[in-house]
Amino acid sequence: MSRKLLLSATALAAGILSAPAFAQDAATAPQVQDQAPDTVTDSAAQDQAQQAGNSEAIVVTGSRIRRPDLESASPVAVIDAQQIQSQGIVNTQDLLQKLPQIGIPGLSRTNSNFLTTGNGVATLNLRNLGDSRTLVLVNGRRFVPGVAGTSIVDVNNIPADFVERIDVVTGGASSIYGSDAIAGVVNYVLRTDLQGVVARAQYGITDKGDNPNYTASITAGTKFGADDRGSVIVNGTYSKDLGLLSRKRAISAEDCSAAGCGPQSYSSYPAQGRFQLFNGDTASTNAGGYASNLFTFNPDNSVVTGFPTGYGFNRNAVRRISTPVERYLAAASAQYEFSPAATLFLEGTYAKTKSSSQIEALALDSQLDVGAGYAIDNPFIPAAIRQQIIARNSDGIASNDVTSIQFRRRQNEVFSRSNRNDRDTFRIAGGLRGDIAPKWSYEASAVYGQLKEVTSSQDINIQRYAQALDAVTDASGSIVCRDAAARAAGCVPINLFGYDTASPAASAYVRSELPRQVNIKNTQFVANASVNGSLFALPYGDLQVAFGGEYRREKSSEDWDALTNAGLNSGNQTPDTVGSFNVKEVFGEVDVPLLKGLPFVESLSLQGAARYSDYSTIGHVFSWNAGGEYSPIRGLRFRGNYAVANRAPNIGELFSSASETFPSVNDPCDGTTATSTGTYAAACRAIPAVAAAVANGGTFQYTLADIQGINGFDGGNRNLSEEKGKTLTFGAVIAPDQVRGLSLTVDYFNIKLDNAIGIVPRSTSIQQCLLTALPQFCNNVIRNPNTGFIRTVNAQNVNIADTKTSGIDVNLRYGRALGLMDDDRLDFSVLYTHTISYKSQSDPSAPVTSGVGNLEFGGVFRDKVNATATYAAGPFSLNWTVTYLSPMVDTVREEFAEFAADLDPEIAAHNEIGSRVYHDVQLRARAGEHMDWFVGVNNLFDRKPPKLEDTVFYGNITGTTTAADIYDPIGRRFYFGAQVRF
Asked: 106, 118, 545, 728: most buried, per Cβ within 10 A?
């Protein structure tokens, strides 16, 4: 569908449908009550409020200065409580992902099944610049991170029914809110005022009868004290999403590869095992590998020679498309006005989240993972195979001898490596605010938050596994472990020859006594104080200022079990990470009215803000922004803003413990002689030790031992500096008096991210150090000064990447009473982003890639539209939401690129991903004064996701055979529920 056709269809739909309350005529728009600082929005609808004469001073998200006009120099998108309800939203991530400004989430239910931690976490990614560059606030204040070592917030912890509104400010906002706001701010404004009780229950299920989800919520509030000076509101929410198995959808029911989907692509690590008669003579043509002398088993455990197609393991049969998530949420907000000069406020949130992953059992390789296979005298060896071994070892041909049996086998009956996650998050914020003088007010607040997460799974002890593989028959005829010490410690021999042959006792022995487990703890403390008001009067208004200070302390730890620390289980060796930092900041903001009420100058003003930060880790950082607004006539306003934002490196990037590895790398100098030519020859000979080696006709050459001795370290880097983002926005706001209820904003944005933190591949560091001698490469490569051989190649975090993006945002809103009935109303809104460019470079030597329309290099849609319309009449309302995603391509992985022309034409055609249009609809009915019933359908027309074969394309999520974090992998979903007020 073209953009013109889509927008035309949306406008036509507006003739019979309607939109949320925030687009109402100003005369009927709800009043904002007792908002916490930094919480009120700037949308085009704000101009309507201004026309209606709303003069109450409030604070706009993205500024600390109180204004009566609700205007901002930066564009803000708004989602209000009615829109959340009108789409049956349980988790706010699902709604925000539809916004054009929001990119691919780093973590969601549909892309986190295969992670070692973070399964089911829900994050936000503005402008596709990364979750860590999107600052999520609650009532304008920070929320404790939900991911170890980062600033990333898990929005699972924010109950949807306690949200009054969500404001999305794109572009740099570090001067107002501090680090992490390079891409912008998502500010959750919680409810602060309610008289009575509101209860809601909702149930959802797909049209295939799976992926059920349940939600129940109750919110209660009251006022108290003289003149109702005090108020309190509380919420309790329970929700459960049971997830979805990959085999429940045809697109992901079977493993896929370059050969297509089905048995030909099944894993060669089967449940019954894939075995090989192994010859230890590495010079023999029969030695090692998995190319000959194979055997496996039928379902009755009879021996099958070779490994025929169809005997592999279908991993997708046990994987998940989406992870199950269960949430218990509690939230409260209270305030009491002692006097105009002192209002005490308090807010708290607690969330218990349970989630889990489900992936196939471990694929174990006897040589690579255990370092040992079956000895040829093992009593578990099937008789038919034993006869083959005897025949080969007695034929007098040494190269034909069998020294062991090596294998690949899925550990189905031995242990499950699927994760179980248990997270507890709480946050409490409180403070005092009030007026301290005419036109002056203040606020002082403190926030403390804590996350505790335990992620665990079963695992094996590699040492015990090797002991259990080595079995003999004792004098009594019993099969026992060969090692006497192991037997004394309880060793039980393990039989892996065939389906379900590992006994429960043997499986229990090789499993680690304690689970593979990580304990994560994040803590955050923030203290903030600010004042704002009129510094002095100018001819056309007061010069408004805000200034204050902030202190923040954060700490994060990841504590892994002892076997994981030692690398003695099935996973990689992983050290613990502990780190902390603090930052002291001062900030200020100014709003200067220059002209007002003149011909062709309805208003003209300038704004600016600055923040100076002193980090315990990186030292001093300065961020600022400057902007202005010009309104030539009533109903037309031009605005622009330029911001320089910063992101300090997080705890994980700084303090992740270095873990040693022995990488497979090549030195371009290997084989260099005095007469060598080529790209690197001259640079190699410039190394003194290489020059000495090639003198007099010598050759600089590694031995196998030299290559195998090269090590390296992965992990954090305490020498990192801050990332820098520069954002330019300018646009226009149109809200003409002549067309009541209409508003239109059009804004251009341009964001440049410099000095971004990334990891340089080891091969790139070696090559570019020789070619450029730049420290960002050469600091990773350490050569022996005496021999010239590479000794160490590190792959640690460095400030090296760049990203640039630009585009146009359009926000159209219109609402009016139709007059067809006494109380009917039509409203609609359209949010549209056209991305002009998205280019990134991982390091100065890497090619510049374009992510617009390409899943591999950023997954940025050229055009993304979210249109919502609602028609309300009497007790009924009908809401219709349309989301448009423009076409994409998904590049074939590098290892298949040279064979791309030979791919099955059907598979190759999947590279071209057509546009997608999703329709969501909800019908709502009021039954009396106290109850609403609602029923809805998401993905009404069951639009299928694109098929992207596993291992072939970049954009698929393992187990889903599609880009499940971008496109809907689940299909048509129904929900119904009720809301009661009393």
From this structure: 118
* Six-digit token string for 939: 């993905």
pLDDT in tens, 87-137: 888 899 999 999 999 999 999 999 999 998 999 999 999 999 999 999 999
pLDDT of residue 3: 38
pLDDT for the residue numbered 699 = 94
8 Å CB contact between 590 and 607 = yes
Amino acid type, 189: V
- Provide DSSP, 307-318: --TT-SB-GGGT
Provide the sign of the torsion angle of the four alpha carbons 769, 775, 780, 782, taken in this order. Answer: positive
- Tokens 């939600």 belong to 215
Confidence band of 59 (pLDDT split at 50, 70, 90)? low
End-to-end CA distance of the chain: 46
- The 3-class secondary structure across 754-814, one letter per residue, is EEEEEECCHHHHHHHHHHHCCHHHHCCEEECCCCCCEEEECEEEEEEEEEEEEEEEEEEEE
The bridge status of strand 134-138 relative to strand 184-190 is: parallel
CA angle 36, 38, 39 (to 5 degrees): 65
Indicate whether 56 pLDDT > 80. Answer: no
CA distance 121 to 125: 13
Q: Which residue has the higher pLDDT, 385 or 39?
A: 385
Number of H helices, E strands in the chain: 18, 50
pLDDT at residue 215 above 90?
Answer: yes
What is d(CA 247, CA 250) in angstroms, rounded to the nearest whole number? 7
Which uninterrupted H or E stretch holds 725? strand 723-734
Distance CA 969, CA 684 (A): 52
Distance from C-alpha of 565 to C-alpha of 572, rounded to nearest angstrom: 9
Number of Cβ within 10 Å of residue 774's Cβ equals 15
pLDDT at position 466, please? Answer: 96
Q: Please give the structure tokens belonging to residue 776.
A: 């960002």
Cα–Cα distance, 109 to 124 (Å, whole number): 13
Asked whether residue 524 carries a pLDDT value surpassing 90, the answer given is yes
Q: Do the Cβ atoms of 188 and 262 come closer than 8 Å?
A: no
444-502 pLDDT per residue, tens: 999 999 999 999 999 999 999 999 999 999 999 999 999 999 999 999 999 999 999 99
* Cα–Cα distance measured from residue 911 to residue 328, given in angstroms and rounded to the nearest whole number: 41
Helices (H), 91-234: 92-96, 174-177
From CA 268, how far away is CA 5, in angstroms rounded?
49
Q: 295-325: buried (b, 16+ CB within 10 Å) or exposed (e) per residue?
A: bbbeeeeebeeebeeebbbbbbebbbbbbbb
Cβ-based neighbours of 676, under 8 Å, separated by 6 or more: 684, 685, 694
pTM: 0.89
CA dist., res. 843 & res. 887, Å (int): 28
Residues 6+ apart with CB under 8 A from 471: 378, 379, 380, 479, 480, 481, 482, 493, 494
Tokens of 112: 């986190």
* Length of the chain (residues): 982
3-state secondary structure of 397: coil
Q: How far apart are CA 427 and CA 448, in angstroms?
A: 6
Concatenating the DSSP letter of every residue in 640-667 gives EEEEEEEE---HHHHHPPPEEE------
Distances (CA, A) of 262 to 146, 266, 311, 778: 38, 7, 11, 47
Rounded (5°) CA angle 357-360-366: 130
